[in-house]
Amino acid sequence: MKFTCEKSNLQEGISIAQKAVTGKSTMPVLQGILLKALGSSIILTGSDIDLSIETKIKADIIEEGDIVVDSKIFGEIIRKLPNDIIEITTKDNNSIEIICQKSKFTLIHMNAKDFPELPTINENTIFQIPQSILKSMIKSTIFAVAQEETRPILTGLLFEIKDKRLNLVALDGYRLAVKSEYIDSESTINAVIPGKTLNEVSKILEETDENVNITFTPNHILFTIGETKIVSRLLEGEFIKYQSIIPDEYNLKVIAKRSELLGCIERASLMGKDGNTNLIKLDIQGENMIITSNSQLGMVREELNIILQGQPLQIAFNSKYLIDALKIMDEEEISMELSSSVTPCIIKNNEVNNCTYLVLPVRLLNN
Amino acid sequence: MKFTCEKSNLQEGISIAQKAVTGKSTMPVLQGILLKALGSSIILTGSDIDLSIETKIKADIIEEGDIVVDSKIFGEIIRKLPNDIIEITTKDNNSIEIICQKSKFTLIHMNAKDFPELPTINENTIFQIPQSILKSMIKSTIFAVAQEETRPILTGLLFEIKDKRLNLVALDGYRLAVKSEYIDSESTINAVIPGKTLNEVSKILEETDENVNITFTPNHILFTIGETKIVSRLLEGEFIKYQSIIPDEYNLKVIAKRSELLGCIERASLMGKDGNTNLIKLDIQGENMIITSNSQLGMVREELNIILQGQPLQIAFNSKYLIDALKIMDEEEISMELSSSVTPCIIKNNEVNNCTYLVLPVRLLNN
């Protein structure tokens, strides 16, 4: 194998493929990046079996071939080289030579045959969506994915496609996040994608109108973003029927300025941090919401103008769950739908109905 | 105690005084900030006994007084409040009330009498120096302060004043850093200031021509920066006679472009990381310096144009020590003065003689 390419292209390619290399694998070859010199490109692949990322960069191929190099040291070497043409050649003794200006590295390589093959996926796109929209949808929901492995299915995000809408759904037993967008697809899909995969996908997605193409197989999802392909296994098992958790009706509705409400809750949560309960109490009545919290250090009282439709209510929450949702929402006015101090609270944008956040209240002793 | 002040002023004051609060003390009162309402100011003080920082902000004092509040929670509360006037009042039950717009906090406080008094220092300034210059001098030397406590005096930086020059000196047994600037003072001083103190001082110093005033007592140093006073104890004991370590003569001198040399050494060091030796070899001959390093992963060879005065030499270093010095130097051309493969290397700016870095070589088995 022998090729030359621009340092900046190679660095960019490595940084993408590297996102699948976790360093946690017991297979040494999975700490490497597969370099395949073919035609007029280098294909770089990183994998941890569950997730594989493949990307293509332009290169002058003098001799085709493929090898695997340690992802970390190879990435560091290329990053530190001058901005110029890099020449890479395989040598005897399982090594490659990397030359750039007056720098010359000799680096051992591993055998490309030991690198796991990517699952074959028939690339019939099931739907397309602008990168910026998918990026925002992931960001709007991924925080609600379960961090604990006790129910593995909840460590993933549901991609639900029906009625020409893509719904992303995450829930962790205490709260639920749903984000919904129109897509031009007649398919019906229910697939759960590991949160870890989507974290990496959202780093690769750019703030652009250009599309990402998405293909599903029974066990895998394929994201195609320009010259980059991301293949991830799906999580096995059935996702919770989230629609049945979301109440259809409510007894009272609060409309509030999002940034004001967020500020009040963030300040109130400063006192709740003691003992890690994050407990805050909301007293909703008339045109005001009073938010209080206390700890051994002292207490706090916040007051906020609201519009209340319905009866007054006192209810308590873990402030973290409200903050996570309010931080990511993008409308200036939000609505909270409530029924009692022991039933879920639904938070939505007040205008466009494209997201739903559900938060369970904390039951107090005197309720 | 009762006062009102601008949130931004109070936040700024807390962030300065807080720099002396380490949270490592067993005295609860030292996790607090002392607030003293006096005249038309609030004086905020943080201390860990060795280091105390006091700063003054403008306030409307309605009732004078002093209390101590937990530094962390008080800082977080003030930071999260809206940008507006804040009112703080002492209440019964050892608490203060903090009011800003519709936010109201009640926070327990500690007794100001328990807060340690700052050492009294007669404020006859011994010298003045522009803040930006002292900041740069600290940055240019502090990296060479010993991290280990085996020889406590080496965890400090020597402030040496003589012949109208201020010399800052740090050494850790493997390398030495000296930075020198003219000052308008006839004093002669030798004082060793804890590295930790100077870390905090350099964060408070601004990139401005305005002066910092410096006063010494037998046991303390006082930095006066605008409305802020920083008092630190000095380290006890005698600093090493560093001048006797710096060789007066050399057999060869290398002149090199700093950024090129730094780039070569940084790349070469990528291979030396294996096993944590950071070992790189320099082969100096004619118009070239060849830098090599190798590890189990492979090897690297870097080549650099230099001007050599004197005989060729092969010498080995821990790359970290060369990188630390070359990174912080500011001239485009540097000189290296060498005598043999087992004697120290001196690195200087090629033009202005205001800094000296000494690095010990690594003795190789075949030397």
Plain-language structure description:
The structure is a homodimer of 367-residue chains. Chain A has 6 helices and 27 strands. With 367 residues, chain A is an alpha+beta fold. The first copy, chain A, has 3 domains: 2-114, DNA Polymerase III, Chain A, domain 2; 127-243, DNA Polymerase III, subunit A, domain 2 (DNA Polymerase III, Chain A, domain 2, Roll), CATH 3.10.150.10; 247-359, DNA Polymerase III, Chain A, domain 2 (Roll). Chain A has a 9-stranded antiparallel β-sheet. In chain A, strands 15-12-13-14-27-26-25-19-23 form a 9-stranded antiparallel β-sheet. In chain A, strands 5-1-7-8-9 form a 5-stranded antiparallel β-sheet. In chain A, helix 1 (7-17) runs antiparallel to helix 2 (71-80), helix 3 packs antiparallel against helix 4 (195-204) and helix 5 (258-272) runs antiparallel to helix 6 (319-328). At the A-B interface, helix 2, strand 9, helix 5 and strand 22 of A face helix 2, strand 9, helix 5 and strand 22 of B. Strand 9 (103-108) of chain A pairs antiparallel with strand 22 (298-305) of chain B, so a sheet runs across the interface.
Q: What does this entry show, briefly?
A:
Two copies of one chain form a homodimer. Chain A is an alpha+beta fold and 367 residues long.
- Percentage beta strand of chain A: 35-45%
Quaternary structure:
homodimer
What is the CA–CA distance across the termini of chain A?
A: 72 Å
Structural class of chain A: alpha+beta
Domain count of chain A, please report it. 3
Per-chain topology:
The structure is a homodimer of 367-residue chains.
Chain A: E1 2-6, H1 7-17, E2 32-38, E3 41-47, E4 51-58, E5 60-63, E6 65-70, H2 71-80, E7 85-91, E8 95-100, E9 103-108, E10 110-111, E11 127-130, H3 131-141, E12 156-162, E13 165-171, E14 175-182, E15 189-194, H4 195-204, E16 211-216, E17 220-225, E18 228-233, E19 252-257, H5 258-272, E20 279-285, E21 288-295, E22 298-305, E23 307-309, E24 313-318, H6 319-328, E25 333-338, E26 345-349, E27 355-359
Antiparallel strand pairs in A: 1-5, 1-7, 2-3, 2-6, 3-4, 4-18, 6-10, 7-8, 8-9, 11-16, 12-13, 12-15, 13-14, 14-27, 16-17, 17-18, 19-23, 19-25, 20-21, 20-24, 21-22, 25-26, 26-27
Helix pairs in contact in A: 1-2, 3-4, 5-6
